[in-house]
Structure formats: structure tokens, C-alpha cells
Amino acid sequence: LFLPSFQDLFGVSMVVPLMSLHIKSLGASHTVAGIIGSLYGIMQLFSSTFVGCWSDIVGRRYSLLACILLSALGYFLLGTSTTVFLFAISRVPVGIFKHTLSISKALLSDLVSERDRPLVMGRFNAASSVGFILGPVVGGYLTELEGGFYQTSFICASIFLLNAVLVLMLPWSEENTGNREHQRGAKGTGSFSAKASHGLRLKSATNGAVASDSLFQSPWIQVATVLKRIKGIACSDLWDIFLVRLLMSVTILLYYSNFSLALEERFGVKPLFAGYLMSYSSALGVLAGCLLGPITRLYQHNTYRLLLHSSTLTCTLILLYASALSIWMVILSSTFLAFSTTIGRTCILDLELTIGGNEASGTLLGVGQSVTSVGRIVAPLLAGVAQEFSPCGPPSLAVGLALVAILIMHANKQKYRSHGNVKLKNQ
């Protein structure tokens, strides 16, 4: 699963940076390009919850294959887009079904115990990030060739087809057996692991026999089941988890929203330096993902405490960046911020699955992606308003939002510490 995740973001990051140049070459105005980009974001916002919940119903194998193949179709259509209309059409299947990484994370959650989940998710995110670092370099080189954008799009579609083959090669028939053997070997590790084993057994049943039957149900029954599960999430006591995720997502987006412009206005450095600094931070993020195992062991697998400390560190570092008097302070804050944000992102995901229960991991991850999409919509607006007052306006606002998230975590610390499942209303 690490290899497809690497190839996924490698292919996507080859194409995405070139799309604005391509749509301009097709004669689209800035407004039209912005509308198409916004429509893609809106489709992602609403589809992530439904696709995640659908993966809980029909099983990871079929939903992951469907998302990979339909995403491949979208990038193939992008490679044939010679008009603005065709460009917009090509974004529809990708906007609705490009949730391959979320379903892969749900599958990983099915296969490992709660104790090992932060470590595995950290490595998964590290593999994805390496692809995101290398992709733009290869895409920039290919676009220099004649018809480079079209070639890059076809290569991306081919990578998704290769991912479909890799997913088919996974030992699906052995998944449930492997889970049960893993659980039997972990029975003596205490109540925490026992609860993880119970969740894994439940998920094995859900993704095995039940999922195979659900695949052949009528589409209307599947839709009704999806809506019932989403209602259960909406009526549960998970609002604080998703609110913390929203606040921290907006916090990070505000930090990066005007990064290049702010550095140029405050310190007179060129945008190229800002690009190098962001690449440096991405590389450190990969390292942080690989170090999550030792860090979680240091915290005795207490995800809540690790999330609280990483969020506090993130808040402090953004405050340091907002008040920095020299570029060296910016470099220092960016260095440690790469670690705190990577750890925080993995911890909030783990906390969602731990407190929300193991029965609907796809739905929970889908709702989490929708929450992040809301942050991507809200953050540019907040950054633009804050930028009117000062180049330090967006990071200063980010500090305030991070403080609110930390206060929410403090107010609900008993629920986080108990690691008890929050029962959904439809259970």
C-alpha cells in the first residue's frame, strides 16, 4: 500500500502545478479558471464523506479499485482536453472519486491494531510525501517538451492503472485470516489492545462477508445505507474532534497562504528562496513520519497527549514566525513546524478512529476529508482579509485559531483519555 500511495501523489503532483498554465493556454480567463478550481473543491467536499461511507458498505477492494480507475479516466480525459469545456469535464470524475489515499488509510486501519496505527499511518504519509516532492520536478521537466502537458497527463493516468494492478495483487483472500491471527497474538497486551482486536474482528466481518453481499445490493439500498451512516456520524459526539481538525487545518493553511509574499515584504527575499524553504520543510515532514514510531513509544501510545503537545508547539512556532525579526528565525520555526504539523496530522486521524470506533473507519476518514476541504475554502478568504492589515496578519490569526483548538482539547480531555468508543445513533 505504501508503493501505490507514493505513485498516487507522484503522478498527481506532476500534473497539478501545470494545470493553471494549461487552462490559460486554452484561452480561459482567470475567473473561469478559478470557477473550475472551486467546483473541483466543492465536489471533493461533498463526495469524500459519501465515498468513504460507501467503502465501508461494499468493502475496500471494490471501492479502492473503482476510485483508482475513475481517477485514471479523469487524467486520461485531461490529456485529451483541447478546449476549456473538455478540461472542465475531465475534472468531474477526479473531483468525485479521487479519494484513493483516504480509502487506503481506512484499509490500513483495518489491518493493524490501534497501538500500531500511528506508526503505520506516519510511514504511509511519508511515502506519499516523497511522491509529492519528486512529482513537480519531473512534471516541470516534461512540460518543456512539445505537448508536454498532454504527455504528463497520460503518464499520470498510466500510473493510476498501474496502481489498480498493484491493488489487485494484494492478498485479499488472506486479509481476514491475517487479522484473526494478529489478534490472537495480541490478546495478552492489555485492555487497550483487546479493544483494538475487537474492533479488527468487527471490521473483518464488515469488510468480508457483509461487504461482498452489499456489492450486489441495488444502488438505492446502498445510497440509503450511506445516508443512514452519515446521519449516525452527524448525530454522534464527535463534533469536537472534527472542530479541532478544522481549526488546525485552517491554522496551517493560513501559515502557508501568503508565505512567499510575506517573506518578500518582510525580509526582501526572492520567491525562489521561499520555494526552497517549503521543499526543505516537506523533506523534514517525511523524516517526521518515519520517526513517529519512537515518538509514540516515548508517549506510551497516548495519542491525546501527543496531539496536545504537537498542537501547542505548532501554535508557538507560528507565533515565532509572525514575530520573527530575521530570516533565520523563520528557518528555525519552519524546521520544527514540519515535525509538529506532521505529527499532529497523524494524531488527529488516529484520534478520530479511536474515539469514533472501528466500525466505520471509511466514513470517519471521509468526513475528516470534508472538514479539511471546508478549511481549504475558508482559509483563502480569511488570509485575504487578514493580509489587508499586515503581512503578519494571517499567521497571527492562525495563532488565535490554534489556541481555540488547544482549549477545546483541554475541555474534552476526559473523553480523549478514556479512549472509549462514542456510539453512533444508528447502532
From TrEMBL:
Membrane topology: Multi-pass membrane protein
Keywords of the record: Membrane, Transmembrane, Transmembrane helix, Transport
Residues of the Major facilitator superfamily (MFS) profile domain: 1-417
TM ranges: 35-57, 63-89, 149-170, 238-257, 277-299, 306-331, 393-411
Gene Ontology CC: one annotated term: membrane
Transport found in the keyword field: yes
Single GO term (MF): transmembrane transporter activity
Subcellular location: Membrane
Major location category of this protein: membrane
Family of this protein: Belongs to the major facilitator superfamily.
Record-given protein name: MFSD9 protein
